[in-house]
Structure formats: structure tokens, C-alpha cells
């Protein structure tokens, strides 16, 4: 038999591990007793330059489950801090995630991380494990987000551990997910070093620039310019969440990525019936992270990042830095509205949005809300309602007439902005329920369906149906 180390080739090129030791702690994945491959994302592997070669499923399960380390991996856990539900926590860190290293693929540098592979220096009271349910949810939802065109971390593999994980409801099957991210730098990473050491904070900024905004590396006013970039990415991301009806559920600063990717698929969910105040997370009792509050929260999280960057923006005069940042933050409401309009207007077929279009979009949203319509299906149905005999629709037609484009073109724009398929909660729940009894057929079927979410296909119609009353998912839970 070939050695495991020559089977799977991951072209590691690690940089985070070279940062000072204050940034991370060595970590060893726990070897699961009965690793079994659930899914391996061949398409993503190719993008990353990861070569599977002749590696069998069993070998893959051992390599991405934590039994063996792929050659070139340098496993570490990263430290960070964060504000959880508005409250500062001075030290968090990868408590149930281990960074294997980085690869430089077609889309640039990516982290490869095992999630749920056992305890690290930052696990606190936790076991560092993940039940199967959250792994299947993250795999399905993050890959669906990617297919929907929303910036996101991705899923390279899911491996069942063959070991139980103990949570509130008793023992559950365990699993490990390989997460791929543009980086795992968060607002919380800046919070940690803003509290601990100014030189480390400067090192972190340089590293973040190198990775996400290399054009700003070495620039005169780079800390401030970096802040503006992160702000635009973050607001652009939340606008995309609006477009597809996604509720993150736990937008703590430690779950807010510097890269502008959706990260941490804990209690996340897509809305069925449109309700701007929708909350699914069982731990979000005040509705802090409800659908309509995601942009205000993004701005709040950005204000935390701003406060961390003050000493780097103007070391001589912090007051001047604060004034600049406050001014910038004040302007972000307008940036948000622009991002929102840019994401939402194509849903009505509008090509070049104008500020007044916001009102039209809001009028449709108001109609969906009053009628209790399914968010996804209501948008997707609009092309069939173009001739509806109602004042709102007449207004919409006038707006489209001004564009002077053929109807097919307008409809094509709408269908590229309004998904036919989303990972509906009850479908994800069913994939998990069956998966827990060892049947992954629904997981795979759902995953395959979601790969082309804008394409209408009759055989996939069952996946487009809103839940029956007895199928509605009211609460989602973190993987913790
Ligand atoms: P989250 O709310 O999922 O972003 O997690 C917040 C923090 O708790 C992070 O530092 C996680 O690493 C840590 N954490 C969550 N679940 C576990 C677990 N089962 N074991 C150890 N640490 C955990
Ligand atoms: Mg997290």
C-alpha cells in the first residue's frame, strides 16, 4: 500500500504560522475512531490545486478527519477576541478549529481548516468537537451561498468521526468539516491585538493588507484605507444577504471576516415567509441579529474595528484619527443604501438603479410582508406578474419602460438575481435527520440541486416548495 503522505497532494504554502507565537498555538487534531468520508468537493479541490490522485475515500477520511496529517500541514489554532451579543470577550480563539495551512489556488490564497477536530489551547470548557448536524448544515449552506454568488467560506470535505459528541439533547454522531476561507482574520483578531500589543497590531495589519488588499501594502494612509475597504466589503456582503434572504444569526465581531466573506454558519437560516424581524437562532433572544438589523449590526461591528485601528491611523494624535473614523462611519449609511440598491434593483429587472428605486423595492417588500409571501418564490414569480393590473405594478412597468429594453432581457436580469432554489431550512433539517441515521442521500440530492440555483428545472420543484405547517423550522442552534 502507498504511504498516505504521497496520496493526497495539497500544495501547502503557509504564512500565518510564521507570525509571532503570540498569534497562534500549535494544535494536534484528535484522531477519530471510525473516520468515514461523507463528501469531498472535487470541484473546489481542483480550484485549490489539491490533487486527489488515487486517494481512496478511506484515505481521504483519515487525512481530513484528523487521523493523519497531509504532508506540509502545520496545524495551529489562532487567537482572537470579540464582542458576543455586544459584550466584549478579551480572548476567544479557535476552540474547535485547527488551521492546517494555506494553499494558493486559482482564486488566490486560501486557508484550510479542520472544524471539529478536537481541543486546542483556546477551547476553554469546550470539547473542540462538532456534531454531524452543524457540519452538514455548513457544508450545504456555504456551498449554496457560493453558487448563489454570495462571498463565503467554502466546504472541501465532511468526515464522520464514528464517535459520539455529547450535547444538550444527548449523544449525537460527530463529524469534521474542512473549511476553506480567504483567511480567518476577523474583526475580533484586531480586537485581541488592540488590547495586547501595538507592535503585534501593526504586524497584523501588514499581514491582512498583504492578504486582502495588497495594493494598499506600504501605502501612506494604509490603516485608514484598509478600514474603508473592510467597511465596503462588509456592507456589500450584507446587501447580498438581503438579496437572497439570508440571516446569519450570530454576527458577533469574532464572526465578522476582514475578507468580506460570510463566515461561521452556526444558527444561520434562509427566510421562508418574508418578515424583516425574522430571527431563527435559539440564543438570539432579543432579536439583535434579526434580518433587518444586519446592516446596523455590520456598522456597529465596523465601529469596533475602527476603534482598534486608531493607534495605527494616527499614532501622534488619536483624537484626529477618531474624528476621521467617525466621519467615515457617518458616511457609511449612504454607502449601505447604495450597496442595498445595487443588490436589490436587479430583482425588479432594473439595470442602473436610481435612488428613487429604493421606494419601489420597499413597496414590493411591504406587499410581500403584508401578504405573508415566501421571500424566494415571491421574487422569482415577478416575471409572470409583469402585466398585473395594480397601481404598484403599473409604477414598476413605467420604470422598466424607461429602460427601453426588451422583456426577455429584463426577465433574464431578474432571474439572475432571484434564485429559484435556496437551501430551505426544512430541507436542510431533513438532510441532517436522515444523515444522523447514516442515510446521506438527501444531503447529496440537496447539494447537487443547489449547485445551479438560478436554473429552473421541473424535477427540482419539490425543493422550491415552502415548508408545510408541520415542517416549518422555528429555531436553529449553534454547533457548540
Ligand atoms: P461561535 O459563536 O460559534 O463563533 O463560537 C464562539 C467561540 O466558542 C469560538 O472561540 C469557538 O472556537 C468556541 N467554541 C464553540 N464551540 C466550541 C466547542 N465545542 N469546543 C471548544 N470551543 C468552542
Ligand atoms: Mg465563530
Main pleated-sheet profile:
5 strands, antiparallel
**Rg:** 23 Å
- Give a list of the ligands: adenosine monophosphate, magnesium ion
What is the rounded distance between the termini? 38 Å
Parts with pLDDT < 50 across at least 5 consecutive residues: none
- How many distinct folded domains? 2
Give the overall pLDDT as a whole number.
Answer: 96
> Would you list the SSEs in sequence order as H and E?
HEEHHEEEEEHEEHHHEEHHHHHHHHH
**Strand order in space, largest sheet:** 2-8-9-7-6
Please give the count of helices: 16
Instruction: Tell me how many strands there are.
Output: 11
Helical proportion, percent range: 40-55%
Shape: globular
Strand content: 5-15%
Derived structural class: alpha+beta
Architecture overview:
- The structure is a single chain.
- This protein is of the alpha+beta class and 480 residues long.
- The protein has two domains: 4-181, no CATH class; 185-418, no CATH class.
- Helices cover 42% and strands 13% of the residues.
- It has helices at residues 4-7, 42-48, 57-65, 132-148, 187-196, 198-212, 222-244, 294-313, 318-344, 357-371, 375-381, 391-403, 407-417, 425-436, 441-449, 461-464; strands at residues 24-26, 36-40, 76-78, 82-84, 87-89, 97-105, 108-115, 154-167, 170-181, 246-247, 269-270.
- The strands form four sheets. A five-stranded antiparallel β-sheet has the order 2-8-9-7-6. The protein has a two-stranded antiparallel ribbon with strand order 1-3. It has a two-stranded antiparallel sheet with strand order 4-5.
- A hairpin with a 2-residue loop joins strand 4 and strand 5.
- The chain starts with a helix and ends in a 16-residue tail after the last helix.
- The model has no long low-confidence stretch (mean pLDDT 96).
Amino acid at each position: 500500500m502507498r504511504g498516505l503522505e504521497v496520496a493526497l497532494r495539497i500544495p501547502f504554502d503557509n504564512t500565518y504560522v510564521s507570525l509571532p507565537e503570540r498569534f497562534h498555538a500549535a494544535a494536534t487534531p484528535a484522531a477519530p475512531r471510525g473516520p468515514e468520508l461523507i463528501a469531498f468537493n472535487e470541484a473546489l479541490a481542483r480550484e485549490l490545486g489539491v490533487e486527489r490522485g488515487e486517494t481512496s475515500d478511506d484515505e481521504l477520511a483519515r487525512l481530513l478527519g484528523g487521523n493523519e496529517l497531509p504532508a506540509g500541514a502545520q496545524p495551529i489554532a489562532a487567537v482572537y477576541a470579540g464582542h458576543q451579543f455586544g459584550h466584549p470577550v478579551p480572548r476567544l480563539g479557535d476552540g474547535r478549529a485547527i488551521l492546517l495551512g494555506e494553499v494558493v489556488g486559482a482564486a488566490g490564497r486560501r486557508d484550510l481548516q479542520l472544524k471539529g477536530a478536537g481541543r486546542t489551547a483556546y477551547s476553554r470548557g469546550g470539547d473542540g468537537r462538532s456534531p454531524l448536524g452543524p457540519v452538514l448544515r455548513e457544508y450545504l449552506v456555504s456551498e449554496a451561498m457560493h453558487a448563489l454568488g454570495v462571498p463565503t467560506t467554502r466546504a472541501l470535505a465532511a468526515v464522520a468521526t464514528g464517535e459520539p459528541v455529547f450535547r444538550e439533547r444527548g449523544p449525537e454522531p460527530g463529524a469534521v468539516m474542512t473549511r476553506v476561507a480567504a483567511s480567518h482574520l476577523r474583526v475580533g483578531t484586531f480586537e485581541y491585538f488592540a488590547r495586547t500589543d501595538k507592535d503585534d497590531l501593526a504586524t497584523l495589519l501588514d499581514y491582512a493588507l498583504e492578504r486582502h488588499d495588497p495594493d494598499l501594502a506600504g501605502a501612506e494612509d494604509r490603516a485608514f484605507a484598509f478600514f474603508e475597504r473592510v467597511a465596503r466589503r462588509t456592507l456589500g456582503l450584507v446587501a447580498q444577504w438581503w438579496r437572497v434572504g439570508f440571516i446569519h444569526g450570530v454576527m458577533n465581531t469574532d464572526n465578522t471576516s476582514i475578507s468580506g466573506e460570510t463566515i461561521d454558519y452556526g444558527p444561520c437560516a434562509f427566510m421562508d415567509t418574508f418578515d424583516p424581524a425574522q430571527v431563527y437562532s435559539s440564543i438570539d433572544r432579543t432579536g439583535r441579529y434579526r434580518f433587518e438589523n444586519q446592516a446596523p449590526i455590520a456598522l456597529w461591528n465596523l465601529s469596533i474595528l475602527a476603534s482598534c485601528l486608531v493607534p495605527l491611523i494616527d499614532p501622534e494624535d488619536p483624537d484626529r484619527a477618531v474624528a476621521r473614523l467617525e466621519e467615515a462611519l457617518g458616511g457609511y449609511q449612504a454607502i449601505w443604501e447604495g450597496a442595498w440598491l445595487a443588490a436589490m434593483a436587479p430583482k425588479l429587472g432594473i439595470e442602473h438603479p436610481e435612488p428613487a428605486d429604493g421606494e419601489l423595492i420597499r413597496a414590493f417588500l411591504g406587499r410581500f410582508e403584508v401578504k405573508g409571501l415566501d421571500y424566494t418564490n415571491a421574487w422569482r414569480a415577478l416575471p409572470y406578474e409583469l402585466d398585473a393590473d395594480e397601481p404598484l405594478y403599473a409604477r414598476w412597468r413605467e420604470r422598466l419602460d424607461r429602460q427601453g429594453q426588451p422583456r426577455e432581457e429584463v426577465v433574464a436580469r431578474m432571474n439572475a438575481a432571484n434564485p429559484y432554489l435556496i437551501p430551505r431550512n426544512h430541507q436542510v433539517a431533513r438532510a441532517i435527520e436522515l444523515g444522523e441515521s447514516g442515510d446521506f442521500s438527501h444531503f447529496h440530492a440537496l447539494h447537487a440541486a443547489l449547485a445551479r440555483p438560478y436554473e429552473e428545472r421541473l424535477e427540482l420543484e419539490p425543493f422550491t416548495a415552502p415548508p408545510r405547517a408541520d415542517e416549518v423550522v422555528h429555531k436553529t442552534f449553534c454547533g457548540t
